[in-house]
Amino acid sequence: MNTPLLEIQHISKRFGSVVALNDISMTVQSGEVMCLLGDNGAGKSTLIKILSGVHQQDEGRYLVEGKEVHFRSPRDALKAGIATVYQDLSMIPLMSIARNFFLGAEPTRGWGPFQRFDVQRAHRVTGEELAKMGIYVRDTAQPVGTLSGGERQSVAIARAVYFGARVLILDEPTAALGVKEAGIVLRYIAQARARGVAVIFITHNPHHAYPIGDRFTLLNRGRGYGTFTKAEISREELVEMMAGGEELEELSFELAEFARSDARLAQAAEAFQAEVQELHTTQKQEKKE
């Protein structure tokens, strides 16, 4: 079997007395989409920050191409070809698509103090790189804020691939998008996979993960609940494991009990109101007498 491009072994992370991650292991191969699923509080954000160099694990090993690494900053992760696209995208809405594409790494022309931003090259390269990913925009000079949410996510993905990402970590890229926009993003994730990029797709939505994922790792309260290939788990089973089969049954029972008690409460309230009305009527009659 090929050496994984990225691997974590028995990773744990604590913040004081809080255990954010406990004994998490995962591998990702080139040209693969690994979906990391979990609800809020599952530990996804902490794991992202360890993979991207923001945090360091307390226990366990982090390997890239079989060699152990110790990232001290996101810059270290980027140098190793590990790029993270966060939900906020770090884009400036009023700047052009091309300026956002090269933000912080602008191409220049000229010498020494006479260097200036190479506008023509920036627009040409941006258009070419977006087209390679199957992304077509009307004009790369238009403000990036005029694009839809899905299109902005796609530009961020293309930017990361252009600047040498071998591992692309996507933090809830479809969370705030409608069905159509989410579909756009999933299509461009497939494009990145086709170019040999290893994609870690973090999401709480199994309906978005299942169509694009090759393998699925589930997190719950900082613990790993297994890794499955698409052949090993159906969409329905993935949804059930995300929610927790026993928890769903308990919730269903609680809702049924609440519905019954709610009906009883409604009947009791009606009876109470009838008694109050009868009391008011009696008091009025007594006053008249």
From TrEMBL:
SMART domains: AAA
Highest taxon of the lineage: Bacteria
SUPFAM superfamilies assigned: P-loop containing nucleoside triphosphate hydrolases
InterPro entries for this protein: AAA+_ATPase (IPR003593), ABC_carbohydrate_import_ATPase (IPR050107), ABC_transporter-like_ATP-bd (IPR003439), P-loop_NTPase (IPR027417)
Record keywords: ATP-binding, Nucleotide-binding, Sugar transport, Transport
MF terms in GO: ATP binding; ATP hydrolysis activity
Ranges where the ABC transporter domain occurs: 6-246
Protein's name in the database: Simple sugar transport system ATP-binding protein
Organism of this sequence: Thermosporothrix hazakensis
